[in-house]
Amino acid sequence: MSSAAPAAGTGVTATARITAGADGSLPVLESDGPFALRRTRCAVPGWTRVTVVGAMSAPLGGDRLAIETEVRDGARLLVDAAAATLALPGRTADPAAYALRLRVGADAVLRWLPEQLVSVHGSVLRARTTVELDPAARLVLREEQVLGRHGEPPGTLFSRLTVRRAGRPLLDQELACGPGAPGGWDGGAVLGGHRTTGQLLVVDPRFDTAPAPVRLLGDHAVVTPLAGPAALVTAVAPDALALRRILDAALADLAPFTAP
């Protein structure tokens, strides 16, 4: 793990790395900066589990952070987190950057299920997730954003998710919220006054022959089939608990394959 303190007025630059093998091994488990990666117990046989533990407050303004993950052919990997991630103001006015770079091989499965990302008042964060999938890969990816801590206005959050399958685009979308975002983000066409938003992406070759039908999940969530073997759940909610309940119910319905 990197232990060097940043110079005054600068942020931390760190990249943590995970590589999972089909035999349950972790050839690479490399912590760095605020990311302490821990192999944790998984109750379901055949799965490897890694928990991301925060070793320091991050991301702060000016930080450049990344987690790179490779799930090799035939491997099954669950990545979760010990706590929510707080985007915080830093000692510099520069925005923080947080990148997730995920690669999933043939007949491999990745369940990426972190805790919420909280956009704290005064922070500016650019979050970018890029995923490369083999045609025979399966993926469950959850993202949850909370706009401000209890009783405070949000920070500024730019979040982009790009997924490619067999080198071809499957999903590419961006969300901008907070005082530095373009106008209208809190209007009826986007968040409608809600303080939390999230999505659940499930990619599974079985959707080639049986696509997920379009349907509403309550008043503020929808399941949408993608032009590929995937389904996307998009939701808004008044708080993090309500959002998690929506996404958990969707996860149980859309990803029935044996998993933790």
UniProtKB/TrEMBL annotation:
It comes from the Bacteria. GO terms for molecular function: nickel cation binding. It is found in: Cytoplasm. One of its GO terms (cellular component) is cytoplasm. Its main location: cytoplasm. Keywords: Chaperone, Cytoplasm, Nickel insertion. Required for maturation of urease via the functional incorporation of the urease nickel metallocenter. Belongs to the UreD family. UreD, UreF and UreG form a complex that acts as a GTP-hydrolysis-dependent molecular chaperone, activating the urease apoprotein by helping to assemble the nickel containing metallocenter of UreC. The UreE protein probably delivers the nickel. This is Urease accessory protein UreD. It comes from Streptomyces termitum. The lineage of its organism: Bacteria, Bacillati, Actinomycetota, Actinomycetes, Kitasatosporales.
